[in-house]
Amino acid sequence: MSRLLPIATIVAALLALWYVAALFMNAPLQRDVFANAGRTDYSFGDLALADLNMERPKLPAPHQIVAELDRLVLQTAPTSRRGLVYHALITLQETLLGFVIGSALGAGLAILIVSVRALERSIMPWIVASQTIPIIALAPMIVVILNQFDITGIIPKAVIAAYLSFFPVTVGLVKGLRSPDPLQLDLMRTYSASSAQTFRKLRAPASAPFFFASMKIAVAAALVGAVVAEVTKSEDGGLGARLLAGSYYGQTVQIWAALLAAAALSATLVGLIGLIEAFAARRMGMAG
Amino acid sequence: MLSPVARQAGAPTADRVIDIAGLSLSFATSDGPVQALSGIDLVVGRGEFVSFIGPSGCGKTTLLRAIADLEAPTSGALRVNGMSASEARVKRAYGYVFQAPALYPWRSIARNIALPLEIMGYGKAEREARVARGLELVNLTGFGNKFPWQLSGGMQQRASIARALSFDPDLLLMDEPFGALDEIVRDKLNEQLLRLWDVTGKTVLFVTHSIPEAVFLSTRIVVMSPRPGRVHDVIDSDFPRRRTLDIRETPAFLEVANRVRKGLREGHSYED
Questions:
Q1: Are residues A228 and A88 part of one domain?
Q2: What's the pLDDT tens digit per position in A176-187?
Q3: Which listed residue, B43, B45, B82, B196, has the most CB atoms within 10 A of its CB?
Q4: 3-state DSSP assignment of residue A79
Q5: Are residues A149 and A110 in the same domain?
C-alpha cells in the first residue's frame, strides 16, 4: 500500500494540472461560442463546466478522454473498424514483428562486430548515420519501395519498426559482449577455451543486463516506428491511422484517445520485457 | 655464491616441470620498451613449492603469466613439462589462480568450479563428482548452490582454488591469491594450502608480497629485484612438511626470513 501512495499522489497532481490547463486553453474558444450564442451573463462556473465538455476542445479534459476510450474500447466490438481495439491490434502486430526482426538484426550485427575486429570501425559509422535520417521522411520511401515488390500491409510498417529498433540492440549488445573483465578472459585462455566456448559461457551471459535494457528501448522504438509508418500510409489502419483521421477532422478527443492507447500499449510491452528480465535475473542468481 | 642454475643442475631433465634459461621479456609501450624480465634462469622440479617474492614491478607476475602463456617472452627458452608454454596451455597442464576470485556472478559456486570441466568436455556425472571433491578439499561443502555474492572474499578465493584444481593439473600457478584478504583469513588459508599441497603432491608456483607467507609455504624462495626484473637470490628452505603456523616463531624460520629480507634490500627493493 505504501508503494501506491507516491504514485497515486503524482497521478493526482498531474490530473489537477491537466484540468487547470484545459480550463485555460479552452477558455478563449468557449468565450467565442458564448458570444456567438448571445450569452453574456455566464459565471466562471458556467465557463469552467462548458470548457471541460467541449466537443472539439483544444485540450480535452481527462474525463472526456476516458469517456471516449470507454466508448471506443469497451462499447465497440473488437472487430469493428470504428473501435480502438481493432487498430491497436494492427499496431501491435507491426510492433512485435518489427521488434523481433530488429532485435535479431541488432544481435547479429553486434556478434559480428565483436567477432571481427576490423568491422567496428567500418560498420559503426554507417549504423549511427542510419539513425540520423528523420524517420518521417524515410518511412514513405520504404513503403513505396516495398510496394513496388508487392509487399504491402503490415510488413512495410514492420520494416520501419525494425529499422528503429535494431540500433539500441546493436549498441547495447556490443557493450555487453565486451563487458567481461580481462581477468575472466585470461581465465578462459588458461583453459584453452575456443572462442565459441568463450562466447557461450562468458560473453553471452555477461551481456544479459545490457541486452534487456536495450530490448526495452527497442520495443518502445518499434512502436514509434509502427505508428509513424501508419501516419504516412493510413489506409491499412492502426493507431497512427486513427491519429491522422482525428487530426483531419479536428477530433482532438479522438487523437488523445488513440495517443493514450499507444502509450498504454508501449508501457505494457516494456513491462512484459521487465518481467522476463526479472525471471531471467532470478535464474542467474540475481546478479544477472 | 653458487649461481641458482648451477645449484639446480643436478635435477634430472625428465623431472623438470619448469625449465627456464635466459628468459627476457620487454613490453612495447607508448613511452618506449619496458624491460619487465631480464635473463631469468630457473628450474623447478616435481612436487616443489616455489615462491616468488619481490617489490611491485620486479616482474614476478609477468614471469608467472609467461609460464602460463598469457604473455610472450622476447627471448630465451621456456619449457613447461618439457614442451613450449603454448603447448602446455593447450594441453591444460596447469591451473591458474588470480589475485581476484574472478568467479562468474551468474553461476552458482558448484557451476563455477565446474566451468573448466565443461570446457574440457567432462561428462555430467564426472563433473558432479569432481565438484564435490573440490568443495571438500577447500572446506566449502554445502555452499555449492550459493552464488558468489553470498560468500565472503576468503570463501570466494577458496572456490577459485577449487576451480583451478578441479581438472587435476599437476602444476598450480598462483598470483598473490591471498593478497586482498585480511591476516586472520590469510593465516587460515595458508594452512589449508599447505595441507592441500602435502596431500596432493602438486607443483606450486606462488607469487607473494609477504615474507612470512613465502617462508612458511615454500620449499624454495626466489627473491626478485626490479628494473629490470631479475632473480637476485634463490633460498632453499626445508621445514617439515606437516608444519603449523607456530613455526613462524622459531629461530630457523626467522633466519630464512632475514635472508629473504637481506636479498630484497640488496636488490634495491626498499629504495625508490
A1: yes
A2: 999 998 999 999
A3: B43
A4: coil
A5: yes
Question: Has residue A76 been placed in a domain?
Answer: no
pLDDT of residue B7: 44
The answer to whether B234 and B4 are in contact (CB under 8 A) is yes
Quote the minimal CA–CA distance from B271 to chain A in Å.
Answer: 30
pLDDT category at A168 given cuts 50, 70, 90 is very high
pLDDT number for residue B5: 47
> Are residues B31 and B42 in contact, defined by beta-carbon separation less than 8 angstroms?
no
Q: In this structure, are A92 and A207 located in the same domain?
A: yes
Q: Are A50 and A43 in contact (CB under 8 A)?
A: no
A203 within domain boundaries: yes
Question: How many C-beta neighbours within 10 Å does residue A152 have?
Answer: 14
* pLDDT score of B1 more than 50: no
Which of B91, B94, B106 is nearest residue A284 as measured by Cβ atoms?
A: B106
- Write the pLDDT tens digit of every residue in B4-48: 444 444 456 667 889 999 999 988 888 888 888 988 999 999 999
Mean pLDDT along residues B178-195 = 87
What is the model's pLDDT at position B30?
86
The helix/strand/coil state of A153 is coil
Measured in angstroms, the CA of A195 and the nearest CA of chain B are apart by 11
C-alpha–C-alpha distance, residues A78 and A287, integer Å: 42
Q: What's the pLDDT score for residue B2?
A: 40
**A52-77 residues labelled b (16+ CB within 10 A) or e (exposed):** bebeebbbbbbebbeebbeebeeebe
pLDDT score of B160 = 94
Q: Do A286 and B100 touch (CB under 8 A)?
A: no
Nearest CA in chain B to A206: B106
Write down the pLDDT at residue B269.
62
8 Å CB contact between B68 and B49? no
- Name the domain count of chain A: 2
> Does A267 lie in the same domain as A127?
yes
Residue found by looking up cell 479522438 in the block? A254
Range of the domain at A41: 4-59
What is the pLDDT, as a whole number, of residue B12? 64
The owner of cell 629490470 is B228
Cell of A12: 493526482
Which runs of consecutive H residues, i.e. helices, occur in A78-207?
A: 84-115, 117-132, 135-148, 154-177, 182-190, 195-198, 204-206
Chain A residues in contact with B147 (beta carbon < 8 A): 285-287
pTM score, two decimals? 0.81
CA angle B57, B63, B68 (to 5 degrees): 135
Judge contact between B174 and B207, C-beta under 8 A. Answer: yes
Q: Give the separation between CA A251 and CA A243, rounded to whole angstroms.
A: 9
The answer to whether residue A27 sits within a structural domain is yes
- Distance between CA atoms of residues B37 and B39, nearest Å: 7
Among B17, B42, B23, which residue's Cα sits nearest to residue B171?
B17
- Could you tell me if residue A163 is inside a domain? yes
**Which residue of chain A is at minimal alpha-carbon distance from B165?**
A191
Chain B residue with Cα closest to A190: B89
Inter-chain touch B104–A192, beta carbons under 8 Å: no
Tell me the CATH number at A119. Answer: 1.10.3720.10
Instruction: Name the residue among A186, A197, A208 with its Cβ closest to that of B70.
Output: A186
